[in-house]
Amino acid sequence: MTSYCSLVFLGIFLPAVIAVYGICPRRLRPWVLLGASYALFWEMSGRLLVFLLFTTLSVYGAGLGLEALEKEEKKEIAELRASADLKREKRAIKKLYRGRRRVLLILGVFMELGILIVLKYSSFFAFNLNRLSELLGLSLTVHVPSFVLPIGISFYTLQAVSYLTDVYRGTIRAERLLPKLALYMVFFPQIMEGPICRYAQTAGQLWEGRPVTWKGLTRGLQRIGFGLLKKMVIADRLNPAIKEIYGNYGSYDGGIMALGMVLYTVQLYMEFSGTMDVVIGCGETFGVTLPENFQRPFLSRSISQFWHRWHITLGTWFKDYIFYPMTTSGWLSGMARKMRGRFGSRGAAVLSSGAALFAVWLGNGLWHGAGWNYIFFGLYHFAWIMFENITEPGVRRLTARYGIDRDSLPYRAMQIIRTGLIVCVGELFFRAEGLKAGFAMFGRMVAGFTLASFKDGTVLCLGLDMQDFFIAAFTLLLVAAVHFLAERGVDLRERLETGTAVIRLTACLGLALFVIVFGAYGANYIPVDPIYAGF
Fold first, then answer.
1. Statement to judge: residues 164 and 243 lie in one domain
2. Residue 336 covered by a domain
3. pTM exceeding 0.85
4. Are 193 and 155 spatial neighbours (Cβ–Cβ below 8 Å)?
5. Domain match, 204 and 222 both
6. pLDDT tens for residues 242-283?
7. What pLDDT, on the 0 to 100 scale, is given for residue 336?
């Protein structure tokens, strides 16, 4: 069972869990979810479950420790007697305990991130250290380790860090019920690919043991069906051509490189957003509302807006736990004050926030994988966002001078197409087999662009025939239509709920039949593993 879209998961595991969950008393339902989640994790990662258990226990202990220090601080302040130095004594106690809590937070965060860094990045760092040693003519050689990653480690580690940080900030109270915290960490629909949830968002819902309702079940199955359409009919169908182009890019011209770039961007979005539909739909069947991870990103008018709509929970995590803490830190605020005299208020704000953005996008690139192409991918988007921030005032003045309506359809279409092109180029490097291959493919696409391969039949020798391209394109138009309607405030699922039973049944059966008939599966089909599960 390597995918939420597999027959074993959707046809056996999920129905069995729903059935057992539904017939159990309310107090036992959270335990059903907890047991099912650990069983699924064990099936996918085996003994690597020990890392998740260690993370859960260490976060639980650190959270209780942070709260205990807070109580000790309040107790000492309450025991103070009135004196001339009362305020100074209170400040001293607060400073002392703030320091202790900060040390505990740092230790807890470093412990969680340390496991992730060792398992995921140590081989990358060791390999590059050896390469640097060779270039400098040194005799230093570091052993390059190799580890097997637990499924979902990048996701549950960020959830652990957010929990500890929120306890430290006082946003939430430390959880005293260990199984409740454990269920938040391991809830099976989200353990593989997210979304990255905050404790306040989902922990209470999960432990509440909400009943299975007809509305929740039907809405969940509708969402699952739409996700399967995206993944199985579009993303998985395109996979043979994408593997061929990226694996043998030296055999094709620039036109095929451009095609591969676009196909992979479509595949990544359809696979990841489709899986999120399945995940959120699974949550709905248990009455649990998981946070949305996508909001029609390819209708964005800028790169900044795109990343507010793509992988939303990761973006908000970086914003809340890296960007804001850095921009409000003393040293960065001091740097901004020093730059105001030279660059003005706006220039200083752009440059100082740029330092925090750099850290965010370096972290974003590394989070996706231990490779230079991922680092380049992150810094590529950092550069575009900084460019937009710097040039936006000038663009506004220029459009105002020439009377250009920035909200007109042609201008918005131009912005959407430009943003989409920038994103596609970034995904070319993201998917490439290393940074060198990425630049080679980009160079071939720009310098050797030609449509010859579209005329001589090469396109139909990539593993897909004309029927495959037609089915993928037609289904993509269907998904785009749903997204355009949603952008205009039309929710098709809500419309279905107000329709007659015949309309609802016809729509659901039509969706299921479409996926069954046109989905990419069968005896000769090689299942495509979830892309983001590898990150």
1. no
2. yes
3. yes
4. yes
5. no
6. 999 999 999 999 999 999 999 999 999 999 999 999 999 999
7. 67
- Are residues 180 and 125 located together in one domain of the fold? yes
Verify that 188 and 249 share a domain, yes or no.
no
Residues 6+ apart with CB under 8 A from 194: 155, 276, 279, 293, 311, 313, 314, 532
Q: pLDDT tens digits, residue range 164-175?
A: 999 999 999 999
User: Taking a C-beta distance cutoff of 8 angstroms, is the pair 300, 309 a contact?
Assistant: yes
State the residue for tokens 């495509």.
528
* Residue 200 sits in the same domain as residue 221: no
| 58 and 162 within one domain | yes
pLDDT at site 81 = 67
pLDDT value of residue 141? 82
Asked if 58 and 113 count as a contact pair (C-beta separation under 8 A), the reply is no
Digit-coded pLDDT (tens) for 18-28: 999 999 999 99
Q: Provide the 10 A C-beta neighbour count for residue 137.
A: 6
> Which residue among 338, 362, 392 closes a domain?
392
Distance CA(389)–CA(401), nearest Å, equals: 20
- Judge whether 98 lies within some domain: yes
Gap between the Cα atoms of 187 and 196, Å rounded: 11
**What pLDDT, in 10s, does the model give residues 120-160?**
999 998 888 888 888 888 877 888 788 888 999 999 999 99
Secondary structure, 3-state, 164-208: HHHHHHCCCCCCCCHHHHHHHHHCCCCCCCCCCCCHHHHHHHHHH
The amino acid sitting at 87 is: K
In terms of domains, do 37 and 156 share one? yes
Which helix (H) or strand (E) segment holds residue 66: the answer is helix 49-78
Task: Copy the structure tokens of residue 368.
Answer: 């996706």
Q: What angle do CA 47, 311, 300 make, to 5 degrees?
A: 165
Domain of residue 346, residue span: 300-392
Q: How many domains does the chain have?
A: 3
Residue 293 falls inside a structural domain: no
CA–CA distance, 289 with 343 (Å, rounded to integer): 46
- Dihedral (CA of 233, 193, 207, 16) sign: positive
Q: Has residue 51 got a pLDDT over 80?
A: yes
End residue of a domain, out of 154, 187, 211: 211
CA 188 – CA 151 distance, rounded (Å): 11
What integer pLDDT is reported at residue 334 of this predicted model?
72
SS3 annotation, 85-112: CHHHHHHHHHHHHHHHHHHHHHHHHHHH
How confident is residue 2, by pLDDT bands cut at 50, 70 and 90?
low
Q: CA separation (Å) from 435 to 56, 130, 314, 359, 427? A: 36, 18, 23, 20, 12
Backbone phi and psi for residue 224, each to the nearest 5 degrees, phi listed first? -60, -45
Helix, coil or strand: residue 294? strand
Average pLDDT over residues 407-418: 95
Across the range 185-201, mean pLDDT stands at 94
Same domain, 207 and 219: no
User: Is residue 47 assigned to a domain?
Assistant: yes
Alpha-carbon gap, residue 8 to 34, rounded angstroms: 19
DSSP state of 41: H
